[in-house]
Amino acid sequence: MESNRDWREIHPDFNEYYQNLWKEHGFDYQTSQKWKEVLKEKFEVKDFAFYAWLRDEEHLISQKTEQQNNDRSLESIIDDNIAIFKENALKEHKPKIIKIRNSDFNVEGKKVIGIDCNSDCHFDIQGSNIKVKADEEAIGIRVSGGVVTIRNNKVSVKAGQSNNEKNQLESKEVNQTTFYNDLWINLLNDKKLLEENKLVLEQIAQNNQVNWINTHLSFTPQLIKTWQSYGFTFEQTRDWINIHAPSDQEQAIQEPEFYAYLRDEWQLSPEQVLNDNNIRLEDLRKQFREYQQSQQLQAQIIQPTYGTPGSSKGGNN
């Protein structure tokens, strides 16, 4: 029976969230499996909307794709239709679609304040490149610690910096808004989406934590939070860890403060430390310990002291 089928046999990424999305787009287990058989390594679980468009708008079912593959390379068929899909299908179907990269979020998903598309789509973006397509005009936005709000198909930017003048960005009419990353979220004006948001963020968090663990098995949730508290993304952390031999990486993951010191005080990158023969980590560690001691002494000097009653301390003159 359909309900007893294990969709992960088709693809390991077929969790319950994606199963429901595929079913909502008209795919059952058998048709989903057929698409996987035809597309092979080109098959992507997250591309359900694209496959539904091929089926509905281009009348390109999996069997037809298989037949066409005899005359043209499957790669060219898929690539050509993806281009058409991106240019035309989103406008025809009229959903607002947002693409979010898993690595843009920390474990708690704190960089997303909320997704509420009954009326608004509100995002807190930190250091992300956002490309907004307003009608036919492409607008590139660079936001640092800013807030992007999409309201009634209008986009505005607050408390951030952009490549364009701020007043040119406010209240732009948009047909499509895309964050060019990995995870597709269909933003439909449907209360059901509000219930799904939590699942999406949980999935983002899980995927992100897997990335950290794949860097080194010793990464615990607490260690991940500590690195993030020093402003490191997963990719940046991975680059710092990888400058070490495998035998030294266990120690390296315990020292986020040291690598923050190299980044902030010395303006060093992992590539510089790895490739510059004049840079010695032993010397930098020694200077880091001296830096820590000076910081501790400075903190003691500026810390106020309070005497006990009757003593001369505490500012009695």
Characterization of this structure:
The protein has 317 residues and is of the alpha+beta class. It folds into three domains: 2-93, no CATH class; 98-192, no CATH class; 216-302, no CATH class. It contains 13 helices and nine strands. The strands form three sheets. Strands 2-5-6-7 form a four-stranded antiparallel β-sheet. A three-stranded antiparallel β-sheet has the order 4-3-8, with no helix packed on it. It has a two-stranded antiparallel ribbon with strand order 1-9. Strand 5 and strand 6 (154-158) form a beta hairpin. The longest helix has 25 residues, at 191-215. It is elongated, with a radius of gyration of 26 Å. Residues 62-66, 89-194 and 308-317 have low confidence and may be disordered.
Number of helices: 13
Q: What distance lies between the first and last C-alpha atoms, to the nearest angstrom? A: 87 Å
Please report which band the strand proportion falls in: under 5%, 5-15%, 15-25%, 25-35%, 35-45% or over 45%: 5-15%
The radius of gyration over CA amounts to 26 Å
Low-confidence stretches are: 62-66, 89-194, 308-317
Q: What integer is the average pLDDT?
A: 61
Task: Count structural domains.
Answer: 3
- What is the number of E strands? 9
Please give the oligomerization state of what you see.
Answer: single chain
